[in-house]
Fold each of these.
Amino acid sequence: MQDPVIEARGVSFAYRAGSGPGSGSAKTPHVAVRDVDLAVRRGEIYALLGTNGAGKTTTLEVLEGHRAATSGTIRVLGGDPADRRRIRPRLGIMLQDSGLAAELSVRESVALAGAVSGRRDDVDKLLDRVGISHRSRTRVAQLSGGEKRRVDFAMAVWGGPELVFLDEPTTGLDPAARDALWTVVDELKADGVTFLLTTHYLEEAEKHADRVGLMHAGSIRRQGTLADLTEGGLSTIRFVPPGALDDIPIPLAGTQNGLAVIETTDAQRDVAALLAWAAGHGHPLRRLTVRESGLDDIFRALGHEAPGHEAPGHEAPSHEGANL
Amino acid sequence: MNAIAIAESRMLLRNRLVSGCAILLPLALGLILYASRDTHKPGGTIAGMQTVLMIAMGTYVTATTTLAARRQTLFLKRMRGAAVSDKAIITGLLLPVVAVNLVQIGVVFGILAATDTPANPLLLAVAVLLAEAMFTGLALATAGFTNSPEHAQYTTAPVFLATAAASFWSQAPGLGGPIAVKRALPGGAVAELVSTAWNGGSLASVPVLLAASLGWAIAGVLAARTYFRWEPRR
């Protein structure tokens, strides 16, 4: 791979006994991240998706340099992400939890983050760009959750860092605010900024991410482009059964909520056959829909996998950076 | 560091509860001690107790509360994600607290000095700074096992009471006891050092008092390095 901005090999992380999310009162260390291999190219958006407790945030925090990996090697922008003098001025970080000071105003908070970032920017222009300038003088304590996320985002992208980590950036935002945030991300990407982010909104990952990594039980189970991940997946054709289906040319998978369901690996061919059959018999095909296999299908299947299980037919990430 | 210190000053002044504890209570303590002093005795006795109590309240309790609050809201974690060192973060957070406390001590000492001027201002300044170092270190250490600002009311009580008691035992007239033990207790030596600097006279005990005060300052810093945590325990 040419010029990887993030390169992680065999990275694992365990919370000490009794500490860390999901550890409860356990007396043994809680392994949150297991043998993760990840490489992110310059200028791409890489989305890390996963079930709850899959280890996405911990992975991000290890790659940000917030936590030291228990094992494995990490190179971020060619160095150690915990190097605050050389690497951190090139990074923007948006944590999952706010970390904002309630007593400071929006403007003061962003200006403080800028002052300690090692980069320069215009605070008023930036607040305007992320759509929070109307609350510039408001104290953080008085902001809604969505407004705080916008402040967080402004802090992360202050001064145009080379690499930005975003941990669930759009959680709590209304649809318009989500769109506005993604517009800024896409603009920065066009300027060459690299993004590694986590999200629970699969449609955002499908729309904006160049590549996706799917995590479950601490490890990345699959990664690649959307096309890579959904290749070979079943598309679904649904329609209201027009009476007799005895001579229908394609076998039905069943019925669901009063709709006939066909699962196929070649939607175009089967829709054409279905339409020809309906036309030939004078059947109306009401509420006909075709849905391609998407991330949500793969995502749901992840939840049924046991820890350590690798799905057949999908290449697990290797130390050589497969699927990259 | 400057940006963090300025932001922390704003936060300190805007939070009425914290600013009341940080500004009014230490001043009140110092003035109560001043009002209750024996006017026939030299001012050093009361200055020693003022120093320990005012720094214990103004720096130790306030800094512990502030650090616990900043950690609880993940402000410390956010700062650690930036391009500043841990030392700059801690210095920026504690500078306003210590600066306010030094001004308070300056005000109270100024009032006391109107009737009884200190004999050795340089030694007095050294003693105050050593006390600040000790209490700052202990605040960082105490903050390590203080989960929230509210929790600080309990976690700071042992050190606050112990140092206050040591300074009283060391300075209050008529209280006996082995002098070595008084000096070995946290706050005991520094109270006696302030008293000696204020009253003047023989400086024979100063090296021992300086060593004991410095020892506690170093102990405070070591405790801070051992027990301070940047993120909440979950």
Note: Chain A touches chain B at residues 19-21, 23, 64-66, 84-85, 88-89, 91, 93, 95, 97-104, 108, 111-113, 115-118, 139, 155 (CB under 8 Å).
Amino acid sequence: MLEVAQLSKVYGPDPAARPAVADLTFDVAAREFVCILGSSGCGKTTMLRCLAGLEPVTSGHVRLRDEVVSGPPREMAFVFQDYSRSLYPWMTVERNVAFPLRYKGVPKQEARAATQEALEAVGLGGRGRSYPWQLSGGMQQRVAIARALAYRPQILLMDEPFASVDAQTRAGLEDLLLDVWQRYEITVLFVTHDIDEAVYLADRVLVLRAPAHVALTVEVDLPRPRNQLTTKGHPDFGRLRSELLAALSPAGTPQ
Amino acid sequence: MVSLARVSAGRGSDLGLKVAGIAVALLLVELCTRSGLLPERWFPPAGEIYAEFFRLAGGRPLWVEIGRTLLGWATGLGLGAVLAVPIGMALGSSRTAYRLSRVVIEFCRPVPPVALIPLTVLVYGTDLQTKTFLVAFAVFWPMLFQTIYGVQDVDPVAIDTARAYGLGTFARFRTVVLPSATPYIATGLRISSSIALILAITEELVVGTPGLGRAIIVAQSAGDPTRMYALIIATGLLGWALNAAFGALERRVLSWHPAQRQEVAR
Amino acid sequence: MTRTAIGTAAGGRTRPAAGGGTRRWGRALRLLALQLVVPVVLLAGIWWWTGQAGSFYFPPASEVARYFADLWLFERVGGDVLPSLGRMFAGYAIAVVVGMVLGTALGLSRLLRTAADPVVQFLRALPPPALIPFALLLFGAGDWSKVFIIALGTVWPILLNTIDGVRGVESQLLDAARSFQIPAGARLTRIVLPAATPRIFAGMRTSLSIAIILMVVSEMVASDNGIGYFVLESQRSFAIPEMWTGIVLLGVLGFVLNWLFVVMEARVLFWHRGLKGNSDA
């Protein structure tokens, strides 16, 4: 599905400058849920922007379904961390979701149906006429997810989407995401700095170290469907958690 | 990181770009006059205007006119500020006073100051007093509103802190209220300085009080467009210099807190 | 000296809110009365003072009111008010269009912005009335010289605010649009411009008051109709009550136009207000 090979990114004209992404290589299979885990400042966001075609790469390449990514691809949708700055405050929730569809060439009737369906999938069926700023933070991020879903992507890139909501809301959003991932049969690449979140959501966790490269790959074979109580209480959950914690800490040993 | 890299790469060529921009503008003006797009009798070649401008700048009369305009500008701006700042402080710190005066203020603020020109001429005649009054009336409102907002914007926690440390009324005002309101007042002064210049020039044009404005209209009616344009250029440069000076003052006052940097009273 | 002005303000804020509905109504009424006390007293004072003072410059308010009704309801509306307003709106409309188009171009292109900076700084610092003689040479004493001056004087606040607004658009709003493959044209009209409207409106509001000033001044310098012309002519022929009606009319016009603008702004920018209200809470 997604293939990243020897990807490097250096900001600015100086080739000797410290790269943000260096020799990053990994694959994501179709319908896989991959979490990218890294501490802040390790180049996660830069990497994601390169994958999304928002930032030109310095060397290496990104392929989406065997096609080299050079600009934002049609099969991809992006959910940003800061929902308040990615939803358009002058449009209603409905229009926010429907807006990209118009330029994708979706007929009006179909766009309306897709919008309604996506909003219902995230539990906001009745809030289409509201404005984003009238909703809570968690609801706004659900609108952003609905917008991505209505776009019918094959792959969803998410940049720490739940980092700015409270813990309670966050658990709800995680379950919602797993649910739509199954229902819409999409591929998800999810960036986070939260170990528990990564283990809970993913099929596979990639640990990133600065400058962004894959330091460790951990397969998560916890049973699905996952559940906030039973999954997090599963003995393997603790094992994976410690393994990742060790990989993340600078010396390579658990703190 | 991205933007920084771009800025440092672009800085060297900035000056060149600006010079190029000025050159293009001057060239356009020159082309308009040389090509006869504008009738030559009224629009002399730009080169002659610049020559006239430098000739004027070398002599005394231009500076006398500038001095006269600046005098009206300064007395009006000073009077307006001296009245507006204390009143603004009072209205900003007392809710009751603010409520009592709100309707009157909201009614008076949008009154165009130039509407008062005929009345002022009747009462004060055609000298400096008229200019001062009109400028003062025009700058009073922006100064007043900037001061009110500045005082109202004082962080209540800062006041409580000052209280907790046992600071008296006067000390509290001096150490907390005044420093917080100062950036707003500085912004008000910058806005007001250009309004004051507009009013001073206007008054000279309409009423005929000596100054740059009158010099411009005298040159026009004397059939000397070259001098008229040279004087207009001088007026523009004066406005630009005042803007730059007050902009610098504002930046100095605001340097401690860039977030304060907003125009609330337009 | 223990009860300071600041102290009372803070005290007023922490005073517990009235409990019952009647008390709340009472409070609202008291507040209204408080706000109206000063204007009513002031008006009554002016009425009484001008009535008994017998001043030549300050004729009785009742007389001014009588003249006002005679002149402006609606005898001179077609001859003076409409030409004035027409020229003002024409100049203002030109300034809005030109300011927004140029401002968007300069806001989007760093190259253009840098190159235009010195020229823009000079032109916006030039007091617009200084250009009235130039406009008279260019267009003669008719309507167009006034429209030109009004447009030239009001374009700068709109231009500069549009530049700032366009530059200040959150980069993530644009990234989101790009990631959904919104074409560049639609990104400009559907994202950049709406996001810049709060700033553009701030500029338009400043420009509106400049437009009124320039409307009056241009009529005072050279015109044969318009409110500015009427006021100055009345003064020159010592028709003092007539002059006062013109001044009052200009004040009312300034107030009404400003009020209309605020109403329109609140409608167009309702989302901005909502957004700000939310982030404050």
Note: DSSP finds ten helices and no strands in chain B.
